[in-house]
């Protein structure tokens, strides 16, 4: 029996978490792991008590053809990374790894070159998370050192999207 490597094991769990997502555009699942223990999970969905896009039957950003990475204030949802951070205590996140998987709602395919948006990057930095690992394919992933997001501040360059 071949044992699944640990990074893809955690990415598989994050991918299972995204199945709870309610976005009609893109669903993400996130888990925060520290000292080989899952600290928190999060998926894309409207704030508690508000109707989700899946309940309403439409996505405002999709209806308006807003490009990926822009005009998040029009989105009803809280991002998976943010929901995972909200559900964990800061001391559990210091030096932790956040695993992230995104799937296109319409095609059910993994989102190529996915990465946290600029708002989620700021939250990840402030949470004290050290590493972010994002799934590209069932076996391949990209690893981000959060320290680089501090020293290479894209917000100073006016970059949009993710």
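Q: What amino acid sequence fits the structure above?
A:
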């Amino acid at each position: 029996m071949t044992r699944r490597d640990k990074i893809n094991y955690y990415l598989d769990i994050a991918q299972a978490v995204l199945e709870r997502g309610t976005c009609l555009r893109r669903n993400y699942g996130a888990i925060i792991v520290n000292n080989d223990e899952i600290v928190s999970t999060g998926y894309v969905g409207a704030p508690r008590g508000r109707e989700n896009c899946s309940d309403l039957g439409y996505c405002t950003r999709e209806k308006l053809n807003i490009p990926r990475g822009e005009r998040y204030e029009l989105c009803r949802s809280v991002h998976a990374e943010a929901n995972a951070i909200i559900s964990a205590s800061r001391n559990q996140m210091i030096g932790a790894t956040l695993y992230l998987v995104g799937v296109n709602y319409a095609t059910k395919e993994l989102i190529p070159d996915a990465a946290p948006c600029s708002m989620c990057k700021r939250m990840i930095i402030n949470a004290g998370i050290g590493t972010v690992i994002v799934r590209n394919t069932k076996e391949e992933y990209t690893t981000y050192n959060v320290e680089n997001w501090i020293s290479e501040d894209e917000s100073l360059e006016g970059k949009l999207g993710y």
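Q: And what stands out in the fold?
A: Residues 6-17 form the longest helix (12 residues).
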